[in-house]
Amino acid sequence: MLKSETIDVEAVRRDFPILKRKVHGKRLVYLDNAATTQKPQSVIDALVDYYSRYNSNVHRSVHTLGEEATEAYEDSRRKVAKFVGAQAKETVFVRGTTEATNLVRFAWGEKYVKKGDLIVATLMEHHSNIVPWQLLAKSRGAVLKYVGLTPDGELDMGSLEGLLRESPRLVAFAHCSNVLGTINDVATICTKARSAGATTIVDGAQSVPHLPVDLASLGADFYAFSGHKMLGPTGIGVLIGKKRLLEEMDPFEGGGEMIREVFEDHSTWNDVPHKFEAGTVNVAGAIGFGAAVDYLSRLGMDKVREHEVRLLDYAYDALSSLKGFHAYGPEDTKKRSGLIAFNYADVHPHDLATILDEEGVAIRSGHHCAQLLMRCLDVSATNRASFYVYNSYDDVDALRHGIEKAGAIFKV
Ligand code: C6P
User: Fold this and answer.
1) Among 18, 214, 217, 275, which has the highest number of CB atoms less than 10 A from its own CB?
2) What is the predicted pLDDT for the residue at 6?
3) Which residues are catalytic?
4) Is the pLDDT confidence value at 93 over 90?
């Protein structure tokens, strides 16, 4: 197996028990990491340890198990915040990126967006950074407009600037596209949006797992990401918000632990971030998320990024010579995250993904929850291979081999 010089892939692979399994008798080649990543043993152990040694609710009970669980939960919050250069007090645990955007929609949007206000999103967004704003625009009587794209799959800055001249209330955009891979210049966009008087929400679902991210230097008002896309468990993610904003916002959900005092006719709220964490939280998920962040920190995010750029370069070399292969997004691998969305001649993406599955190769096919983008690309679906820390050049070779097999079947 060829090694990337940045990460010892063979050693990393030994940490992931699922990579030992076979699919249709073939070695599992998992290239669907943008959908969700596999879990290292240390994350699995953290979950088992919590449930088998100190399972308890948090922030409620003074007994030993309750104290230990609370300490582990809050320790994970500190780790996740530190991982992206944020403060623990600004870091709200949620179910994932989707819940984070919906939290902002309800707790910030319903309070601050007024009739006739402009909300700006972009045509490369995942549905979870579009649909909440459609719902908000409908409920508040606001208007939603989209930043267009360049032919190379980057944000059209002229289109953004035109919309900023209309003084939007909110600008919502992804740090990295889950289809094009495009890495957007968050710091510049946030500076421009702030000068136009807008609040910003950045979808970091596809950036934090793959790039070093320092929120202190990016200037976003809200930033969201999901644990399961970065080696952590499902059902846990974070919304990081400027403390002043989080304090001014209304609560998202009402229930236990988000209150300070409850009276018959009203209640007062707990401090942030607890004001946004109503009811029994996902304790195990948060603890597993902390273990995932530990794992990535040990590898080093600079190395993770370098590893993915090498895989991307290798994949472009290996795949672009295939007759009928067409990739989407910026050509410069420095401008994109570790995934390639592509079409292959007239082979339908679901057919290609099925043939690849027979070879043990898992990719995603479909619209990738980005139907506005699919319309821009003038396709109904694409294939997408997305890389992570345990992928090797051998995995790319297996992908190429599977595509060639499909080519032979469909006579490409
Ligand atoms: N994209 C994909 O295969 P959740 O489901 O809440 O953890 O993440 C939603 C989400 C938000 N933004 C971006 C850019 C994303 O890529 C995703 C999830 C997966 O592309 C599943 S649709």
Assistant:
1) 275
2) 86
3) 369
4) yes
